[in-house]
Amino acid sequence: xxxxxxxLVGNVDISxxxxxxxAIIPATLLAKGLxxxxxxxxxxxxxxxxxxxxxxxxxxRRLNTNTYEIDTTSITSHTVPDAMARKMRASYxxxxxxxxxxxxxEVAMPGGCxxxxxxxxxxxxxxxALGARVKTENAVxxxxxxxxxxxxxxxxxxxxxxxxxxxxxxxxxxxxTIIENAAKEPHIVDLANFLNLMGxxxxxxxxxxxxxxxxxxxxxxxxxxxxxxxxxGTYMVAAAATGGDVWVRNVIPKHLDSISAKLVESGxxxxxxxxxxxxxxxxxxxxxxxxxxxxxGFPTDMQPQFAAMLAIAEGTSIISEGIWDNRFRYxxxxxxxxxxxxxxxxxxxxxxxxxxxxxxxxADDLRAGAAMVIAGLVARGTTxxxxxxxxxxxxxxxxxKLTALGADISRIQDEDDDPNRxxxxxxxx
Length: 429
Ligand code: EPZ
Fold this sequence. Notes:
The protein is of the alpha/beta class. The chain folds into 2 domains: 2-15 and 227-409, UDP-n-acetylglucosamine1-carboxyvinyl-transferase, Chain; 18-224, Alpha-beta prism (UDP-n-acetylglucosamine1-carboxyvinyl-transferase, Chain). Helix content is 29%, strand content 23%. It contains 13 helices and 24 strands. It has helices at 18-27, 44-55, 82-85, 93-102, 121-129, 160-170, 186-197, 229-241, 257-265, 303-310, 331-335, 366-378, 398-404, and strands at residues 2-3, 9-13, 34-38, 59-64, 67-71, 79-80, 104-108, 133-137, 140-144, 152-154, 176-180, 202-203, 209-213, 222-224, 245-249, 269-272, 276-280, 290-291, 316-320, 340-344, 347-351, 360-362, 382-386, 408-409. The strands form 6 sheets. Strands 22-23-1-24 form a 4-stranded mixed β-sheet. It starts with a strand and ends in a 20-residue tail after the last strand. Bound molecules: ligand EPZ. Ligand EPZ binds at residues 18-19, 22, 89-90, 113, 118-123, 157, 159-162, 183, 300-301, 323-324, 366-367, 394.
């Protein structure tokens, strides 16, 4: 529940990057050894991923909130069952990691946010380029290869997941692998740095050509995950939307360039320092147009949050979604709060209104949920958001961090809310 209308003021410390952690945790399987990883965000998806790692036979010790020791010396299974795999998208990284470790993997089809169809044809294309045989039967992906051989793969489109999955399978393959049209997100670079610390030979991460020379063996290492670009961007937009003045700390400003640029276009001051950005809003944001693109373009994972801010901006903005087929489902929830938005295919036309009105709404997915939190913070009156577990999949301690910034936000458990209730996917109703 949020009582809106309060400016956010003060400091917020950003946690480790979810999408880097979800690639690095499976990557520990590529060595028979001990990895000590710091700055892992304390979020649901990480807890789920640790359950899968334990299920495979590795031992996991949690040294503190954000530090884990993962010992993958002995693995007893190569199967990730449906009940675990379907809870998130990143479970499919275990295909690449198990293929890379011992040439076989059996992973049930992944779940994840519902933005329309989320195919994995590019992942399969990559595994087959390394000589693996991949088949999908009753929603289980089986990949196997007697010996992975380095190969070349030119992705038809830029895919973060496929780039990560092929990197995981290729680091131990015999010979050279060349990935072209690779994704360049910060978490791709973070994974490459982690793999190289484990003894791999990955070059070019962060560009669209990644070259991987296979190595015989890899070893455990100590590592610290980069700060989360999208969590940081979410707090920057929340500060801007509420007319606030917030120091967002523990960030890599370079990773935030496209987000800062759009905020400046909306009339917000963004001052950059070594490991923090200072966001100062002066009154109502101005309109701006956004096109989501692969990194270093504007990140699709910041699209819903910006829509919540532009809903109350001066003027009419256009957001076009360049990555996902259907990532405007949350607009329906903003309309319930008085927004004036029209969705035309992969574009949303947002006519700024003077204010939003609090209402009961729900989180459709992780970033849509974050958008509803921002809408609730700026709205007049009270907003209740259902299904906030979807938000907690990717935001560590969001209630604590927002409360410290002056938000009037609290968790309410309505009587019939059974935490174990499984909400059937719409498609399966
Ligand atoms: C990752 O998803 C992120 N998830 C998503 O963030 C993010 O939106 C997305 O990258 C884009 O940045 C994780 O990292 C766990 P893609 P991923 O493969 O890897 C199509 C969040 O909020 N495609 O880059 O699944 C696909 O349909 C989440 O943290 C194929 O056609 O995204 C999409 O249109 C939500 N075939 C486009 O490519 C394939 O084999 C980009 O998808 C793979 C993808």
